[in-house]
Amino acid sequence: MKAIIYYLLLATLVCFSASEAVAQSKVTDEKIQEFQSYLSDFRKENKIPSLSVAVVKDREIILLESIGFQDHDAEESTTEDTSYLAASITKTFTGATLLAMEADGHIDLDADFTTLSDWGRRCHWLTTSGTIFGGGTLDNGYQVPTVECDQVITLRHVLQHQVQGEPGTSFFYNPIVFGRLSNWVEENTNKSWRYWMKKYVIEAGDLEGIAAGWRDPAASEVLTHIAPPFRHAPEQSDGLANSVLPNTELNASSGIIASAKALAHYSIALGEEKILPESLRQKMWTPAKDKEGNPMPYAYGWFVQNWKGHKLVWHGGWWPDAYAGLLLKAPDDGLTLVALGNTDGLRHEVNSLTSAQIERNPLALKFLELFVEQSQ
To answer: What is the pLDDT of residue 4?
Structure first.
């Protein structure tokens, strides 16, 4: 009798678990369908000819959308292999590369970045050219401290965007100085930046469909799938005009060329610890504190923030009048969004110079509300 009761209870539990799984699957399918509908409208409203989006859940791609056309005549459809200039999403690759290099003893992140051979000349230009990245005042009145050319600035300061004023005391996003990290590495290791990034990220993660700059000799197929860039042109009947292909050279700030599918696999490889062990991955997503003791909004190549109790790590990419993209992870929830497009319509006014508030991007917010908010 006890055995019969046991098996009846077991059968009930199995049926309950199966029913629950079916219900969860139905909810996920409904969310995917709602997101697909949103993406279709979003592409049209923001005038993005070619839009590629991937959603990852628990290291599995659950959505891969390829919407629109790569050309102005709507003859070349977007596919899952369509690639884009990922721009500053490259900085996430840089963070992983430099942390891995330090762990293996190739560099010390506390080394003096200002020993770079042309730092004096470049810093003088930066602080006298009028660009906000040398110092100045933002439209909202925020006073951006000047970059002091005669101070010691470490690699860690540059990697975490803490180079304004007294290095290491405050955050201000500075892609110009950040980009020179690759030059410092090349001068101090006698190997190319491409060599290190491929060794520690692309090859370590067994990644395909990613070019480390347009000169990457092993990624010619990626380059043949680039969606050409467009700019928003109100004077044209469809609001679009051909744009000039931006600088596709690889440096620490930009240069990665990839499809949404390839960046989704990059995200999965991070989760599987192929690229960094857990300890270094957590370090990469842990920001330092400012002089008031508050966490800064940026860690090692990634923006870091909290949204409704969920940790978010992310980076946008933007080439004005050409490309925009987003890599957004909720690591504790096992969720990732990748979005790439061949205008800058994906970019919305999100203050990433002094803060991390990715929920102000409507596409990111829709993803967060549909997939992340109820995930725990």
So the answer is: 57
* Residue 337, strand partner residues: 55, 328
Q: What is the mean pLDDT of the segment spanning 317-334?
A: 97
* Beta carbons of 322 and 229 less than 8 angstroms apart: yes
The Cα 330–Cα 278 span in angstroms is 16
- The alpha carbon of residue 307 and the mean position of all alpha carbons in its chain are separated, in whole angstroms, by 17
Distance from C-alpha of 114 to C-alpha of 137, rounded to nearest angstrom: 25
pTM exceeds cut of 0.85: yes
Each residue's pLDDT tens digit, 347-358 = 987 788 999 999
Count, residues in the chain: 376
> How are beta strands 50-57 and 60-68 bridged, if at all?
antiparallel
Residue 12 above 60 pLDDT?
A: no
Residue 94's nearest CA partner among 239, 253, 220 is 253
C-alpha atoms less than 13 angstroms from C-alpha of 181 in its C-beta half-sphere: 36
Phi, psi of 154 (to 5 degrees): -90, 165
Quote the crossing angle between the two packed helices 181-189 and 90-103, to the nearest 10°: 30
pLDDT of residue 13: 46
- The Cα–Cα gap between 49 and 358 comes to 23
> Chain-wide mean pLDDT for the chain?
92
* DSSP 8-state symbol, 289: B
